[in-house]
Amino acid sequence: MSMEDLRKDFPILQEKVYGRPLVYFDNAATTQKPQCVLDKIMTGYTKYNANIHRGVHYLSQLATEAHESARQVVADFIGALDRTNIVFTRGTTEAINLIAFSFGEQFVGEGDEVLITTMEHHSNIVPWQMLCGRKKAVLRVVPVLENGELDMDAYRHLLSDKTKIVSVAHVSNVLGTVNPVRDIIRLAHEKKVPVLVDGAQSVPHMPVNVRDIDADFYVFSGHKIYGPTGVGVLYGKKEWLEVIPPYQGGGEMIANVTFERTTYNELPYKFEAGTPDYIGSTALAEALRYVGQIGMDKIEAHEQSLIQYATARLKEIEGMRIIGEAGQKSGVVSFLVGKIHPYDLGMLLDKMGIAVRTGHHCAQPLIDYYGIPGTVRMSFGLYNTEAEIDMFMQAMKRVVPMLN
Ligand code: PLP
Description:
Layout: H1 3-8, E1 16-17, E2 20-21, E3 23-24, H2 35-47, H3 58-78, E4 86-89, H4 92-107, E5 113-117, H5 126-135, E6 138-142, H6 152-158, E7 163-169, H7 181-190, E8 195-198, H8 210-213, E9 217-221, E10 232-236, H9 238-241, E11 254-257, E12 262-264, H10 278-294, H11 296-314, E13 320-323, E14 332-337, H12 342-351, E15 354-355, E16 357-359, H13 364-370, E17 375-379, H14 386-403
Parallel strand pairs: 3-15, 5-6, 5-7, 7-8, 8-9
Antiparallel strand pairs: 1-2, 4-10, 9-10, 11-12, 13-14, 14-17, 16-17
Helix pairs in contact: 2-10, 3-10, 4-5, 11-14, 12-14
The chain binds pyridoxal-5'-phosphate (PLP).
Residues 28, 91-93, 121, 123-124, 169, 173, 198, 200-201, 221 line the site of pyridoxal-5'-phosphate.
């Protein structure tokens, strides 16, 4: 399919902002949706909307089937053993909170350690901090090197007999660093420590196989991979999901309830209290089918060439400082120009139809480590083009002198 045809799949890309063509470089925050995903949402509500799992009636059975086959699509997409490894959540954030709570309840106690890294999104910091506060455990942090790569020597040293779990981003949403998760997991497993991988910024940009990297938990958000908001995924190995307690109580997660005692449902329902977003799950499955048809390897290659092109062109600008120059990057390019505040640059680019994100990108400790006010972040999706980067550069060459 030509890029022109592919872009036609995304209705919002035909919109104008301030009378100009939209250049959307904020895909790390959320991606735009193809028509097939929008249609799927509409079909869900117009053809088979009924609460799932509970009804004997026709519509409820259709909805249940759609939700459960969506679970299978997700399992296949990330290489899970089977659909019972897949728990639907509201997104990455809820999935991490679920594990921080449920794993933490069972396995983390006073003096134990939880290991994260400097480059984590707040979603992968705060739930662990809350757990450590509750349990009097200690949060340890693997430092980042100046170029944006993880300090693997420090990681080896920080992994200890006290470590109960490691939680790490597969790809940094600020630096674009692709972390060596296979090595991180292997080293942790040598000490029998499980690893949660935050895949929010990896699943949309590269082929991912959770069993290949041997992740114990892997989480991502639907809205960052061309699916709807409000639905996300927790993958977990059965050996862990079976032994940790439920996160929330309510309907669906139970086997039997009396006032004295409740027994819990089998996997994955034990972790899905209440009515799930069954319209969202089916639309997410549609998004995964869509990217699967294009091919994640093709998407990866295309976005890699955009990163290389953007990085080379950015360097034409005097005072350019790229934040994050790891050997392996994905999805994003963050930068600063001279003493210009990222917010001012973002505001002026916006007026020229270019959507970038500015600020701390929900990773304040990382921004503090670099001692900067934030960054301007371009983040790419499958529909972005070199021509858009050229438009962005034209805009930069106008606005940078205005702000200098
Ligand atoms: N983790 C990373 C690396 C992210 O980039 C994000 C969102 O930007 C999140 C977690 C949180 O995702 P969500 O807000 O969809 O739960």
